[in-house]
Specification:
The chain is about 45% helix and about 10% strand. It contains ten helices and four strands, in the order ααβαβααβαβαααα. The chain starts with a helix and ends in a 6-residue tail after the last helix.
């Protein structure tokens, strides 16, 4: 099978955390946002808003939430928000009241997450196809109340993540992914006893990757990372915050 340029771009994805000083042009930014907008969307809701950050004071405030320098040092910073505020802007008060139960449902909260994620991945692939690098920034949810306040988000709109985009100033190795057989199951969920050997083999691959990569070498495995991650409660304020925005309440 011939691999076309689109698939080649996808298969060569890596997170870039060090960018050159050059900023993206207005034309590049607009092209990336248009690419994001062409993503699939549930019932044509387009339940997301993208905020481009150009104000250095706002970048600094977001950096203080995230702690990652590429929040500040990048070609352009895009923030993706789940947004069900916009769908109500032209509604009457009576119409808003009749919409409230559905808008506050878990189902519609999931719609905002999926719509934003699909749009963001379109933007990411478009950026990489232009020779740019990208890095997703979930760390902005380290203090989701501050994250939202900095952006002045209204009710029914929540900040989800950022994407730093720019001209790469590093070329990290490709990070291994789980074997396809562990991720792709046919017809029903694969039995645990069939998955465990795949995960054991993957841990050996990850151990070799961390040992041999050019920077930040360490002794680590996927299993160790997952146990550490899910043994530490983080961002537990997100649930209350989302409900305070009148989403995911029903």
């Amino acid at each position: 099978m011939t691999i076309n340029s689109t698939i080649e771009t996808i298969l060569n994805h890596r997170s870039i955390r060090k960018f050159k000083k050059e900023k993206l042009s207005t034309e590049q930014i607009q092209l990336l946002v248009k690419s994001a907008q062409q993503a699939s969307t549930s019932s044509h809701v387009m339940a997301y808003t993208i905020i481009g950050i150009t104000d250095e004071k706002i970048k600094k405030a977001l950096y203080e939430v995230s702690g990652h320098r590429h929040v500040v040092d990048n070609g352009h910073l895009f923030i993706f928000c789940g947004d069900l505020h916009r769908v109500q802007l032209r509604a009457t008060e009576s119409e808003k009241n009749s919409m409230a139960e559905t808008i506050e449902s878990t189902e519609q909260f999931i719609v905002t997450i999926i719509d934003a994620a699909l749009a963001s991945q379109n933007l990411a692939i478009a950026a990489e196809s232009l020779g740019l690098g990208i890095c997703y920034l979930g760390s902005l949810r380290n203090n989701i109340n501050a994250f939202s306040s900095i952006l002045n988000l209204p009710d029914h709109a929540i900040p989800l993540f950022g994407i730093a985009v720019g001209y790469p100033d590093q070329q990290p190795e490709l990070k291994p992914r789980l074997p396809m057989e562990a991720v792709y199951h046919e017809n029903t969920y694969k039995a645990d006893e069939l998955q465990i050997p795949l995960l054991q083999t993957f841990d050996e691959e990850m151990k070799a990757y961390y040992k041999n990569r050019s920077t930040n070498k360490r002794e680590d495995t996927w299993k160790q990372q997952m146990i550490k991650k899910y043994n530490n409660s983080t961002r537990m304020d997100v649930s209350a915050f989302v409900q305070s925005k009148n989403l995911n309440k029903r």
